[in-house]
Please model this.
Amino acid sequence: MTMKTNLLATTTLSICLATAAAAQDVPASAEDDVLKIGLILTLSGPAASLGEQARNGFMLAADRIGELGGVETEIVVIDDEQRPDKAADDARELVQRENVDFVVGPIFSNIAVAIHQPVTESGTILISPNAGPSDFAGAQCNPNFFATSYQNDQNHEVMGAYAQKQGFQNVFLMAPNYQAGKDSLAGFKNSYTGGTAGEVFTELGQLDFSSELAQIAAFQPDALFAFMPGGMGVNLVKQYDQAGLSSIPFLSAFTVDETTLPATQDAALGLLGGANWAPDLDNAANEEFVSEYIEEYGHVPGTYAMQAYDAAQLIDSAVEKVGGDLTDRDALRAALKEADFDSPRGDFSFGVNNFPVQDFYLVEAVKRDDGLYATSVREKIFDDYVDTYAENCTME
Amino acid sequence: MMNLLVLQLLNGLQLGVLLFLIAAGLTLVFGIMDVVNLAHGVLYMVGAYFIATFAAMTGSFWWGLLLTVPAAIAVGLILELVVIRRLYDRSHLDQVLATFGLVMIANEAVKIVWGTSPLAVPMPELLSGSVPLMGPLQYPVYRIAIIASGLAMAGGLYLVINHTRIGMLLRAGATNRAMVSALGIDIGKLFAIVFTLGAVLACIAGALVAPILSVDTGMGESVLILTFVVVVIGGIGSIRGAFLGAILVAVVDTLGGVFGPILLRSVLDPSAAGQAGRMLAPMLIYILMAALLCVKPDGLFGGRG
Model:
């Protein structure tokens, strides 16, 4: 046997062994009687506030419940620094060395893509409290992957549907020039068939929008649709207000929310967004969540916090259902799929692809009675909405 | 279309005066002291952080702006004394290396002191809102104020450079440094003044822009490249050149970004035009710079041999 074939044979053998291990599907972690959960979130850099909200939301539920599912619980928090390479290493570390039973994360979709395989192939359950890339909702759906958030396109589709419903004829579209920005405008146009007054892709991280605002002022469109997450959104909202454009409806996704409102304050009042929840959604579970969160952390929770809060509730409900026995993976997955907990967003169930089937709302930025800024539900746009990729998913 | 042109010209002017405030210091430091200062953008960032801090402390934008000036002077003097002074006799490569290191240290220090999340500076009540221009067009009062104060500072700088003794020394230093020191001028003191003046101008630019943009750690680098283009176009060491260069670069940048795709649309189909326009617009100022250097290798007003 030559050296090369030898190598090939060894590799094949090890792949076989690895597959066998995966097929057996009970990670070593399941054997001990501690429930170990690893959080991978973006906790530094410009988007740190998103990860902090998710961490706070998860911890709020975990602290309140104490032992999730009645099992002694240990939580490890890791900052992915918004770097996919680091996140993938972290995920492997969590699964192989820390022997976690669940990984909860991440915030960003490119990181979800990086950690998906290392986590799920070991039989560990991955729960995304935010990122919902289309691949994992469609053809590459996986029984070990659950999302407590949404599929990425959905919030944009909400705004498209609203623009359609309002009978807008020419909407000015604006997003940063990267994959999520292009997906955003595509999502919007999925449910909006009217004309566009202009379509602008700005540089990622652009902070001065004077040129784009000049075009909006000159074209006087029926409405603006913008996807400008994080600091870009803060600047756009402030400059929109300063430019005196407030008479033109401002539709957005991931731009006006509880992470940007503390910075934009009054400038954002009246601006519209699409979301699966808002802090003032009227139900008992939500009231409890929002008041406890504000009391604990001093700011209003956003969807990031709510979705992570639900991730913790989901784990709690499933582990309790299986009586703390994490070795029967099929039973655990079935228990997770039941989603038997009270979500602050009201109706919540999992579709075939383990993505939520939930309602979507038009939300508006308001100033609460206590002086804090938050989004507020204006009207329901979609009822029990299933994402468009679910039909491509055949589990197993 | 006319509306868009008017708005974009105003936007160009506003960006231009800001670029000028930063470029003025850079061109003087480069022209007179022969130091390539990559850390100049840091001063712009620090100015923004200063006003964010002082405005939050005093509760007033105006006090914040006022306190930023002495703080900027202090930073300029300290930086010159501790770092820049040691670079005068070193090669440009050493200077680039040292000041680039300074950029990283400064960014990290800012993160440690002020945290990673962007800060907001409230707009002064007096200057918030917008004024009607023509028809439905409105323009933010604050941006008009930036244009006015930038032009005023440019005018002041013109007077200082052309009609005072220190200005005379600056001009002499930019033209022939060796001769100035041979005439018995304390060149060390002159350098400290030049560097501090540049630092103050950059800090003021950062402070002025803070209420429009959020104050963030990366903000220095984003303007630094544009500023270098301005300095090269204007001619190294020339304040007049920096002013014209800044306005030129800013107007080309703002007009090109918007009208480029529109013009292209008349020759290409819309989607291709949009694509090409997006790619061409950021290149325009570099094309401008290359074209100008072909005709005038020293820049518009560069006089040094």
Residues 281 and 302 of chain B are 27 Å apart (CA to CA). The interface with chain A takes residues 1, 3-4, 7-8, 11, 14-15, 116-118, 120, 123, 128-130, 136-140, 142-143, 212-214, 216, 218-219, 222, 254, 257-258, 274, 278, 282 of chain B (CB under 8 Å). The beta strands of chain B are 130-132, 138-140. Chain B has a mean pLDDT of 88.
